[in-house]
Design brief:
Length: about 190
């Protein structure tokens, strides 16, 4: 008499993946807080705390169906990308016309000041990264891991099973592609 192999119901598989994601997120919480703090220092226009940014990224992660991570590096890359998107949304929200971004207070200053268009730069960078993710997802992930997570070339190479030099060449390529996209679309 042979027994039929037991299968795990789809709901149980989803619950198991969600539990694994929760545990992985909890184990990486300190690192994610550090990443959030560093990113917020990079984008002073986002008026949000590191804790809020990490928790928003967590909610983003948990709302996705079928997302599971085989290792902490992949999870950090995904959450860093989610944080980047959230930061861009916060900065755009701050600059929305209904919040008075279209109004400029003038003063009687005779010195010429440099205009700083960080909000526009951030938006164009986000668009360039989104376009890159469609054309070359591996390079877009490299940007997330290097720029947003702060991984070294050696760590990224180890994560993907390629040499550090290959990662460096890919980094040069992605920087060139982003530079071309940003300068081609600059006003």
């Amino acid at each position: 008499m042979s027994e039929e192999p037991r299968t795990v119901p789809a709901d149980a598989q989803k619950a198991g993946a969600a539990d694994a994601n929760k545990q992985l997120f909890a184990s990486l919480y300190g690192e994610l807080r550090r990443l959030a703090d560093r990113e917020l220092r990079r984008y002073p226009g986002a008026v949000v705390s590191p804790t809020t940014l990490v928790h928003e990224a967590y909610l983003n992660l948990m709302s996705r169906e079928g997302v599971s991570f085989s290792d902490p590096g992949k999870c950090l890359g995904y959450v860093a990308r989610a944080m980047r998107g959230l930061l861009i949304d916060f900065v755009r929200q701050r600059g929305a016309l209904k919040r008075g971004a279209g109004f400029h207070i003038t003063e009687l200053n005779t010195q010429i000041s440099e205009e700083n268009d960080e909000d526009g730069d951030l938006g164009r960078l986000s668009e360039a990264l989104d376009e890159l993710a469609i054309r070359e997802p591996r390079l877009a992930e490299l940007v997330d891991l290097k720029y947003f997570c702060g991984f070294s070339f050696a760590e990224i190479g180890k994560l993907h099973g390629i040499s550090e030099r290959t990662v460096q060449r890919d980094w040069q390529k992605v920087r060139l592609l982003l530079y071309q996209h940003l300068h081609a679309s600059s006003p």
